[in-house]
Design a protein that fits this description.
Blueprint lengths: L3 E4 L1 H5 L8 H12 L3 E4 L21 E4 L4 E4 L4 E5 L4 H10 L5 E7 L2 E5 L1 H11 L6 E4 L2 H7 L4 E8 L4 H9 L5 E5 L3 E6 L4 H12 L6 E5 L5 H5 L3 E4 L5 H6 L2 E2 L7 H15 L3
Parallel strand pairs: 1-2, 1-12, 7-8, 12-13, 13-14
Antiparallel strand pairs: 3-4, 4-5, 6-7, 6-9, 9-11, 10-11
Length: about 270
Amino acid sequence: MIRLLAVDMDGTCLDRRSRLTDKTLRALKKAADAGILVVPATGRALTCLPHKLAGRTDIYRYVISSNGARLTDCNTWNSLSEAMIPKEDALSLLKQVRKEKLGVTSHIRYQYLLQGRNLVAMGRLIYGKDAGGVYHVKNMVETVEKTHYGVEELQFYFLAPSSRERIRQILEGYPSLQAAYTKIYVEVFSKKASKGKALADLQDILGISQEETACIGDGENDLSLFEVSGLRMAVGNAVPELKEHADIVLPGNQKDGAATGIEKILQMRQGGTR
């Protein structure tokens, strides 16, 4: 009997244009109404959840954000577990990449901070209403130096063809950090952080077993969810490694694959089978 469902956002619940469809939103609500604890598990900062989902405490209470750097109870805004980038490493890395052609962003205190107004404008253009938690900072080094809060994640957007390889080389000097790459940017977070670790923490807090947990994802950063879930689903556009480890491969995110997966879970619950 599935009691807990962790769902990735970008590439899974969201389509190629970063939109949460009404069909998927209805499926998430249906799962919550059936008594399943729905947990968004995302690389985004908490305040950048899809706008259709933001504040929907009738669907979810707990959120795994910043690739597992934070697990938050959204009823109380208490952080139930966290794994921050060491401040000295964040500052050292930011200073080291200053001469590279990069767009620089960070997740601090649930918010998405972008260095430079051009990057903010681009973020609002790409994410639209989902960019409500985006804020401009003039200098990221000064922002991190002054903050009393932990750095959940750093992101670097590649503004030159050589930027990706250069960042990869630089990050080799930071054994406390790990990275998840896309074609246009890299997410950098603590080696101690993962979506799976945060989900396991929530399982312990709530007394829910691995066998009672399902997950749906698309990327390499969702593999850790698979490690602590009894039912593992990958959407059709997922990376090959995730599909290889999935119990069920669903239609792609362009065909509401996550909604299909949720319907399968609900049918299993009604039938009493996996």
